[in-house]
Predict the 3D structure of the following.
Amino acid sequence: MGIRVRPAVRDDAPGICIVYNQGIEDRIATFETQTRSPDDITHWLGDDACPVVVAEEDGHILGFASTSAYSTRECYAGIREFSIYVHREAKRRGIARKLLVALCDAAAKAGCWKLTSRIFPENTASLELCKSLGFRVVGTHLRHAKLEGEWRDVVTVERLLDQG
């Protein structure tokens, strides 16, 4: 049947959890270090203002893209931070691209005007994906946070959703 990208539902929490925990363990995409349970993921789902999409094939979650509020300040109500994670065994199949395209569409439909993210500089695949889909590099935050006791930089990207 092929890869299908769709809005995430609560029943997807276990599959999302597996993929997210791989990302946490691999230490290439997040400052998080403690793995999560499906219950930890459930609160992400069902909020129309913060879309989450999944890629699935044959009933298995291959990846997800999520948004979260950028700030609690009302003036930033239409800005979302985003993350994308793909299962280790499903990489290099174009899944991240499909997820990010779907996430941009879902966020625009939810009334968002901008998506932004912070990406480790050595995560060149994610940086290239973002650039190819119209995100621009805003700059680099030096020593943004520590991961396993080491300071890490991040590259900030953004895309205005009404400008393709």
Notes: The chain has a mean pLDDT of 95.
